[in-house]
Amino acid sequence: MLEIEEDPAFARMEWRAQHIGWIVMMAIVVCASVGLLGQGPMSDRTLRGSNLEIRYDNIMRNGAPSNLTLRVKSPAVISGDTVIRVWADEAFIESCHPVSIIPMPTHVLLNGEITYWYFPVHSGMSMSTIRIACSPVQIGIHRGNIGLEGGEEFMLGLLVLP
To answer: Which band of pLDDT confidence, cut at 50, 70 and 90, is reported for residue 78?
Structure first.
């Protein structure tokens, strides 16, 4: 007959460690499923103004693609203008790292620390949608500003995870 020594204190410690590990794994799964570790419902943010709406993920993954969507009330409806002028500061450009913009701007102007994108307004459209595909390259908490020339602006807060 095989005799094995029992150590009840060690067994309780091992049982407690296993249960703590299960709770930690479950917490990670829950956080990931709601978007606290990247894309998901808790990371989706919408900022609204009278002429500009911005939808973006405020929690991003380093190097992973993420979209920022701007819905702009057509300037033709507001002032008779035929061009939408969107600007972003250097902090936004460095944190978001835009890789593509749809529709493509008719021209881009760099003025100091501000980048301006110009988009045509198509007749009959009361709202225009602009999509900026981002691929952040710096881990950490970032802030940047984006807005309409002569109009609304928003500060975007981004958390970029590894």
So the answer is: low
